[in-house]
Amino acid sequence: MHRGIRPGNLAIVSWNPPQCRVINFGSAQMGINSNDVNVGTTPYCAPEMWRLSRSGKNSGLGYNEKVDMFAVGVSAYQIFCKQPLWWGHEADEYVLDVMKADLKSQGGAPLDVQNLIRSLLADDAELRPCAKDARKSLDNWHGPENQG
């Protein structure tokens, strides 16, 4: 798990096909589960991370690699909607609803990319795609320069 994905830790290397490289592995952890509470940049932290933070390390709650997928969704929202980090705290239900509405109104991303970002912003980690499935959903996308 990287646990620190945000636009500043992504290097876009290609739009066609869409590719980026993750950089800065200072918060990364080997393994598939964690209950660390003091990692990541708060506005990019998945809901399960801030629930754990509020409940305490011994609450029995934890998280997995899907926290990175949530952070990719928040980062993609910022990139495609050209939005700054306007909320400054965890992405609660209100913030997630606004981000999902912005995807439609801003028109900065094709519909298949909007749908992917919405799925990455799912409150429930089980509903978020893994990295492999997210990449697969973009197999037919050919970048902004080829959009009709």
Automatic annotation (TrEMBL):
BP term (GO), one: mitotic DNA damage checkpoint signaling
Pfam families (alphabetical): Pkinase
Domain Protein kinase positions: 1-142
GO terms of molecular function: ATP binding; protein serine/threonine kinase activity
Record GO cellular component, one term: nucleus
Classification via InterPro entries: Kinase-like_dom_sf, Prot_kinase_dom
Name of the protein in its database record: Protein kinase domain-containing protein
Organism expressing this protein natively: Letharia columbiana
